[in-house]
Q: What sequence folds into this?
């Protein structure tokens, strides 16, 4: 219950933000942090709770982004209606990747590499097919109406991403206190033991990747709407997959608040380096790489693990 | 309640289990013994669905379960433990046991409550909130037992739950296993240590080089020359007889 | 259908490319075979080696082939240090951790290159850049022919080293039986670092052979990572002969596939092979173990 209260309080506070802050810079900062949180939450379901490290979440993200954008550009479908369609497409790609990988028993590094290969295949396809606009990408026509999932100011986008992040929070919270979550973490810790205790390992992993892919695709659709532009590199490039895994690893794998902590810490770090170093290319990603190595080496349980450690000491 | 008939499996030309047949009676403690590498764990793997036999069949409660996925066999009421205990890391004892409880209890609260009662049965009640990784080996063996028990099996396959325990710990574990049997669960245990099996089990099979070489009451089986030879080497039975000794491996 | 007059040079080109791929994959498979880790930063490290060759040429006028005695030991030293001080400390017994750490390394190297040398694609020009050799009527560029024989020679040297020297024997012992090697007094940590170093030394050599016919930019390693993995997986993880043959297969597939489907779609063939092999035959075509 404490966790649920914290989630609701936090989201409530963010919801009130536009009433007090009108700075586009600050709102954009909050939006991008929540967006990174959403991607992290999605990755965390599969990797943090389920133990399956994906290096190719871009496959789901890009599918969501392209599904939504292409439907709008080619068929003129309303953007709001595109969102559930995008989520369904992402989930379908997740189901396909999961069914193949888990049926044939891919684990650990092999699973990571195969997901990366799927994302690369989709990137090359998107680069070559007319439907996705090829290398030029797709430009979503400007409408500037909330009825078309386009807003005048930032506040509208803030509410949308807040709702999506809240869904991610509730999903993670549910995983910590449900039979499904117990089975998923059991599979993460030891597949054979879980199977001996009656857990259908294949099905549990498949469900996890579908949930994770659906949430990631929602992030992709949001991205396309927020920037009104998508191309193969933005959608299916490795940068998205890296962004999805960085947050939870920094914040704390397999925890409810890890993805948020990680996203916020990284955003802070990113802004700090930009202030110190200017807009030099590559500097922030270079620092992210160093942070990733440092976290895995010295703090494998992330910032959340640090909190827990000191919390226990104080108690 | 469990019948294996003529099961065989080989790995790369090596027959790990060769034409083995056994039948377990309900509500008993039976055991499967044999020297290291005899194929005991492999046979367990076949019975519990982790390995598909090349030949032969396994029937459980009258149903053919040959090659059925482990989770399905578990749902039918047969659960196994593993020789190398691996608790779900990062979870407490209570949460570990609850994974098993969830099989028949979808609700979290019910599963956690059930986990507590199972912990009491195996003597882990005092350590419910301890992280599983911090347990001693003896406690981990109990946890392995508790998790399996929490699925409410009719038949429990225990893979060396006594191995690695000191005599004191073994004697503490024995009544726990007897109590499980008295609660209506049939037990089949693999043991390498013969002494423990002699005390606990009512019937025993001896496996050597993948073949079942003897079966019967433990006291009789351990007098069988073939069994003595399997454990102590060729000619051992002859030497023991002339020396007038009794094996106590 | 394709005419033989187009197909034949394309296959030859594929074979020259394949030899270099094989050398790169050899480094990866050696690291995998001994340490049982997947070095995700292999491509990024190749990129660094390519920049090394480039700057030696641009600043000091060193011929790329003359850069071999500098690049090979330099990459070896880098590899030894990386394994000893960074990668070896991060694993905590989980192979996903190695993947994450080498991913972090990739991020650092790629973005350092972007920061220090900008995103421009660079090539070098030598007296032989545009010269060609006629092979059975097909004109193949001289640097590619040199790359082919150079990569094969480097592979032969590596194989001789592994089979004939004491260190090579120690490496094979550790690859086969880690605990046993420790028991007979082999310094396993040292062998790990040496193997990682040799794996990167392969990249140093590959870079020298590659650059005259190729280019370098900060992202150039990306393309090589999955290709090298595909080769290693195709040939069977840890198998040298498999890496060699896999390299040639992938080189030809890429070259002929590109002819057929166009440059960008042609790459799909490689990834499809990669996914299919991992799913259906994870022990590789030649390998026996998973």
A:
């Amino acid at each position: 219950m404490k966790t649920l209260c914290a989630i609701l309080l936090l989201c409530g506070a963010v919801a009130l933000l536009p009433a007090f802050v009108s700075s586009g810079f600050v709102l954009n900062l909050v939006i991008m942090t929540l967006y990174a949180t959403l991607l992290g939450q999605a990755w965390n379901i599969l990797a943090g709770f389920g133990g399956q490290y994906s290096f190719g979440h871009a496959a789901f993200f890009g599918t969501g982004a392209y599904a939504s954008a292409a439907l709008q550009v080619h068929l003129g479908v309303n953007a709001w209606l595109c969102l559930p369609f995008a989520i369904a497409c992402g989930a379908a790609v997740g189901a396909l990747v999961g069914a193949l990988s888990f049926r044939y028993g891919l684990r650990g590094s092999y699973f990571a590499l195969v997901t990366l290969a799927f994302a690369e295949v989709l990137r090359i396809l998107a680069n070559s097919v007319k439907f996705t606009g090829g290398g030029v990408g797709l430009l979503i026509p400007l409408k500037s109406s909330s009825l078309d999932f386009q807003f005048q100011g930032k506040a509208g986008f803030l509410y949308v991403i807040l709702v999506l992040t809240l869904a991610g929070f509730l999903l993670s919270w549910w995983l910590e206190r449900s039979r499904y979550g117990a089975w998923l973490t059991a599979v993460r810790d030891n597949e054979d033991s879980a199977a001996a205790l009656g857990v259908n390992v294949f099905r549990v992993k498949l469900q996890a990747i579908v949930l994770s892919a659906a949430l990631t695709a929602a992030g992709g659709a949001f991205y396309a709407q927020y920037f009104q532009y998508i191309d193969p590199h933005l959608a299916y490039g490795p940068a998205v997959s890296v962004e999805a895994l960085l947050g939870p690893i920094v914040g704390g794998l397999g925890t409810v608040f890890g993805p948020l902590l990680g996203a916020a810490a990284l955003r802070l770090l990113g802004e700090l380096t930009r202030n110190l170093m200017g807009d030099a290319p590559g500097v922030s990603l270079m620092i992210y790489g160093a942070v990733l190595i440092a976290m895995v080496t010295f703090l494998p349980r992330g910032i959340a693990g640090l909190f827990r450690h000191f919390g226990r000491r104080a108690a | 309640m469990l019948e294996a008939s003529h099961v065989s499996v080989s790995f790369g030309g090596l027959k790990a289990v060769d034409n083995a047949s056994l039948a377990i009676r309900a509500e008993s403690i039976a055991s499967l013994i044999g020297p290291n590498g005899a194929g005991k764990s492999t046979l367990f793997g076949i019975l519990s669905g982790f390995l598909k036999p090349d030949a032969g069949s396994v029937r459980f409660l009258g149903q053919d379960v040959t090659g059925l996925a482990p989770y399905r066999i578990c749902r039918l009421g047969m659960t196994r433990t593993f020789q190398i205990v691996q608790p779900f890391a990062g979870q407490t004892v209570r949460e570990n046991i609850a994974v098993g409880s969830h099989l028949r209890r979808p609700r979290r609260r019910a599963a956690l409550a059930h986990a507590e009662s199972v912990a009491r049965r195996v003597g882990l009640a005092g350590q419910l909130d301890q992280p599983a990784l911090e347990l001693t080996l003896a406690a981990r063996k109990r946890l392995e037992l508790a998790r399996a028990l929490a699925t409410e099996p009719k038949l429990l396959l225990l893979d060396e739950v006594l191995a690695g325990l000191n005599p004191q710990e073994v004697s503490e574990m024995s009544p726990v296993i007897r109590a499980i049997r008295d609660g209506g669960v049939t037990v089949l245990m693999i043991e390498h240590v013969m002494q423990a099996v002699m005390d606990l089990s009512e019937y025993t099979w001896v496996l050597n080089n993948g073949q079942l070489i003897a079966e019967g009451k433990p006291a009789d089986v351990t007098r069988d020359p073939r069994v003595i030879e399997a454990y102590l080497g060729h000619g051992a039975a002859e030497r023991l007889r002339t020396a007038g000794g009794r094996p106590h491996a | 259908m394709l005419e033989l007059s187009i197909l034949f040079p394309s296959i030859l080109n594929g074979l020259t490319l394949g030899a270099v791929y094989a050398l790169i994959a050899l480094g990866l498979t050696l690291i995998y075979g001994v340490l049982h880790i997947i070095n995700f930063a292999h491509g990024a490290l190749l990129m660094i080696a390519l920049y090394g060759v480039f700057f030696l040429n641009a600043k000091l006028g060193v011929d790329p082939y003359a850069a071999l005695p500098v690049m090979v030991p330099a990459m070896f030293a880098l590899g030894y240090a990386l394994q000893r001080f960074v990668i070896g400390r991060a694993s905590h017994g989980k192979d996903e951790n190695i993947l994450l750490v080498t991913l972090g390394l990739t991020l650092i190297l790629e973005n350092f290159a972007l920061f220090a040398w900008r995103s421009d694609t660079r090539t070098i020009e030598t007296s032989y850049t545009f010269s060609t050799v006629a092979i059975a009527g097909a004109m193949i560029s001289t640097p590619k022919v040199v790359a082919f024989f150079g990569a094969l020679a480097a592979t032969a040297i590596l194989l001789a080293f592994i089979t004939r020297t004491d260190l090579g024997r120690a490496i094979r012992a550790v690859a086969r039986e880690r605990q046993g090697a420790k028991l007979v007094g082999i310094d396993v940590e040292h062998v790990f670092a040496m193997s990682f170093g040799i794996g990167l030394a392969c990249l140093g050599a590959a870079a020298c052979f590659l650059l005259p016919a190729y280019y370098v930019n900060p992202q150039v390693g990306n393309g090589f990572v999955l290709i090298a993995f595909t080769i290693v997986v195709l040939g069977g993880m840890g198998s040298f002969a498999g890496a060699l043959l896999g390299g040639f297969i992938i080189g030809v597939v890429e070259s002929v596939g590109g002819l057929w489907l166009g440059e960008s779609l042609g790459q799909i063939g490689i990834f499809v092979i990669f996914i299919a092999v991992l799913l259906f035959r994870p022990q590789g075509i030649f390998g026996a173990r998973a």
Q: What stands out?
A: Chain B has ten helices and ten strands.
